[in-house]
Amino acid sequence: MGRLRLILRLAARDLRRRRAETVLLLLAFTAATTTLTLGLALQGVTSRPYERTRAATNGPDGVVRLNAARPSHMLTHDDLGILTAVAKRPGVVARSGPYPSTWGVVRAHGHATGAQVEGRDPQHAAVDQPKLTTGRWVSRDESVVMEAGLADALGVRVGDQVTVSGRPFTVSGLAVTAAIAPYPAACLATCEPEADKPERDNSGLIWATRADTRALATATNPLYYVMNLKLAHPDSADTFGDKVASEQSFRAPAVASVDTWLNVRHRDARTTDTVRMDLLVAGWLLGMLAIASVAVLVGGRMADQTRRVGLLKAVGGTPALVAAVLLAEYLVIAVAAAAAGTGALVAPS
Question: What pTM, to 2 d.p., does this model score?
Answer without folding.
Answer: 0.67
